[in-house]
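Sample intake sheet
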Amino acid sequence: MVELADIERARSAVARIGKHTPVFNSRVLSERLGAPVVYKAENLQRTGSFKIRGAASKLASLGERASAGIVVASAGNHAQAVAFAAREAGVSCEVFMPAGASIAKYEATLSYGAEVRLGGESIDECLEVATAYADDQGKILVHPFDDEAVIAGQGTLGLELVEDVADLAAVVIPLGGGGLAGGTALGVKSLRPEVRVVAVQAADYAAWPASLAAGRPITAEGSPTLADGIAVRRPGELTLPLIAGYVDEVVTVSEDGIADAMVLMLERAKLVVEGAGAVGVAALLDGLDPAPLRPDGTKGTTVLVLSGGNVDTGLLAPAINRHETHAGRRLVLFARVPDRPGSLARLLSNLGQSGANLVTVDHMREGFELHVRETALQIVLETRNPEHASAVIDAARGAGFEVHVMGHSASWDARSGG
């Protein structure tokens, strides 16, 4: 079992290639919680995530044995970290990634000099292949979470929290295989046992509730998630007792909640945070209140661990558009208009008089039940807020145009009486 002394010994190895990452205040979430909330910005860590801590610790523990070559299985963050640490140590690194891994993480891993093989549907499948390959080739497998040296390295984050946050009351941390959450919880609780630790999983990939209830690792089914960095189907043998012993609560969050949290980080904190790194923010937005009351009725500081920032830019645009739509700042309309000159101009004039800004308009003449002299339009508009969006809809319908609200913005249809 990993102990506090192991975490303390790992600090020097982590310090050689990692960073002591900063802590930022969050006014928005502090107001929501009614107590101080801060971010631990591991998205600003070397290689873009906390994983460099465990990688540095593991490579240091291997010493000369690392010269045999390193093998890893990872969706990206662990791969990048070990590839970077291996390059610094002057040893080879081979990586097995799921076929659907983030392009940004794949490219970054290659840039650190690793040889990357894509295949399999999950980290678990890649891990099976990587383990067999390492055994066959006489190389050393660096497990992404179920390894004592890796856990000890991740646990150095907990030591930093105790040192940097004087009134630390709660830590909310992403939970995948359990290396980060288990190591951090061990580090924090060993020094400050009164601090509450909450671990967060994506609801669509939540293996921990059943495993904790059974007292042994249980393999769970999962579906695609924005939080690919914590999409682990089976907890580790080493990490399970750590989570059971040191984490106070495990909660789950939805995909919509994760998307909203990612956009909040962009919009209000000016930080790029991947889905796995944003689950703690999603939990607070969903109503989690982890900070215990003090005897005087006040709360100490809650830390949200932003575990990584390695996200494909292609994922950000849909998340931003969805958020804008829910916030009433983006409206998608479907309209039927007569297929004759002037029809489109009259509709767009009506929308413009309502103060909406036209983003795109697309003609759709196939795939719908249209009259032979009729055309369909998909119109994307920018609006100021929900009330403005409803007014735009009302004005168009009041002028006799047949418009329907599409996608996430369909909630405005109810507001406008449609």
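Comment: The domain at 327-415 is CATH 3.30.70.260 (Alpha-Beta Plaits). The radius of gyration is 25 Å.
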